[in-house]
Amino acid sequence: MIGDGEAETGALAASWHSNKFLNPARDGAVLPILHLNGFKIANPTVLARISHQELTDLIRGYGYEPYFVEGDVPDVVHQCLAGTLDKVLMEIHKIQSVGRSSPNTVERPCWPMVVFRTPKGWTGPKFVDGKPVEGTWRAHQVPLADFNNLEHIRQLEDWMNSYRPHELFDENGRFRDEFAALAPTGHHRMGMNPHANGGELLTPLAMPNFHDYALRVSAPGSVEAESTRVLGMFLRDVMKLNLANQNFRLFGPDETASNGLDAVYEASGKAWMARLEDVDVDLSINGRVMEVLSEHLCQGWLEGYLLTGRHGLFSCYEAFIHVIDSMFNQHAKWLKTTNAIPWRKPIASLNYLLTSHVWRQDHNGFSHQDPGFIDHVASKKSDVVRIYLPPDANCLLSVVDHCLRSRNYVNLIIAGKQPEWPVRL
User: Fold this and answer.
1) pLDDT tens-digit map of 194-237
2) Distance, CA of 117 to CA of 169 (rounded, Å)
3) What is the DSSP string of 97-111?
4) At how many degrees (to 10) do helices 227-241 and 393-405 cross?
5) What pTM value is reported for the model?
6) Tally of CB atoms within 10 A around 20
7) Distance of alpha carbon 9 from alpha carbon 48, whole angstroms
8) Residue of 126, 111, 97 whose CA lies nearest to 25
9) CATH for 199-420, among 3.40.50.720, 3.40.910.10, 3.10.180.10, 3.40.50.970?
10) Which residues make up the CATH 3.40.50.970 domain(s) of the chain?
11) 3-state secondary structure (DSSP) of residue 167
C-alpha cells in the first residue's frame, strides 16, 4: 500500500521501474496499491489532482495496468476492492503461468496494480470546531487533540462507536469467538511465513578459497594491480558456486564494470527484461547482477534480498552513496532492535564496497570527492557496523571473504580501483 504523498518522492518514483527487472518465469510478484486519498500533511498531492486520463497514462507508462477502486460508501467500496483483488491475483497467476511455460523466451509483461481512491480521513469526524476534516489535509494531522474540550470528547466517542465495537466484543470486552475463529492458525499466520524471518531460510554461501586469487608478491613493489579487478574474479566464482541456490546477487548503479568487477559477467549477466539491441552486452533475462541508476533502488532491493534470507554486495562510488544515508540508518536501527529479539534469526550482513574514493580519484576531480559516508557509518555502535579500509588487492580479498560470511552487520568497505602495489601475499 503506497500513499499518494509518498508516491511523489524521488526514491519511490524510481521504484516503479522495479517491475522491468521482474522475470515472471522465476521471480515472485508485487501488487502495488496506490492509496489516492488526496492530501499530504498540509497540501494536496500531485497524483490526486491530475486527470483520470493523465494518471492512467502515467501508470501505463510505468508498465502497469491500473484497476481503479473508488468511492466513499464503505460497504460498496469493500465489495469492489474484494472483487478487484480477485481479478488482479488471477491476472498475476496468468502472467506467471505463461512465463513459466516458456522460461527461456519470456517477455516482460504488463503487471496489474490497484488505484484505491477514498476520502482523506474516511469515516472520521467530518467537522471539528466548524472546520472540515474528512476529505481535507486536516485529516492527516490529529483531528481531535483538546481533551479539555467536552465537544472533542463527545466527537471522539461517536467516532469510536461508529465502528460498532459491540458487534466485535462482548460485554466483558472479550473478542467474540465467532470472529476469533476466522483468524488463520499455526503456519498459516502471516508472521509465520518464513520469508518474514529470513534468517530461518538462510543458507551459507558456498565460498571459494580467497587465497587462490591472491597476488604473489616476491618483493615490495614487484607487482602492480587493480584491487577491485582481482576481487572481481573472486566474486565471479562466488556467483558460480551459488547459481544453483540462487541466493547471491551483486547490486550497483551502472558501475560494476567501472569498478573493475566485470569478471562476474562470466558467471551471470545483468538482469534485463526489456528490448535488446545489437550493441548490448552482458544482458540476460536470468542475470543476477542488478544494475539501475538509482542508489535508492539498489539499497531497497538489497535490503529486501537480505531480509528474505539471501546474500549480496552493493558496489558504488564513494561520492554517490550519500544518497541512501537515511536508508542505511533505518537498516542499522532494524539490526540493532532485532539483535535483542531471540526468535529472529540473524541475516546476512549488508555489504557496501565503495570505490572512486577521495584519496584516488584521478579523472573526475572534485565532483567525485566526498568521503563523508564513513563519518555517517562510524556514528553507529560497533555491534551493528564495521568499517574496513583494505590498502591492496590481497587485503581486499580477505576482507570481502570475511564480510560475505558475517551476519547482522552493515559492513563498509572502502577500496581503490586504480593500480596499486600489494605489500604482502
Assistant:
1) 888 999 999 999 999 999 999 998 887 788 899 999 999 999 99
2) 30
3) HHHHHSTTS-----E
4) 30
5) 0.91
6) 15
7) 14
8) 97
9) 3.40.50.970
10) 2-143, 199-420
11) helix
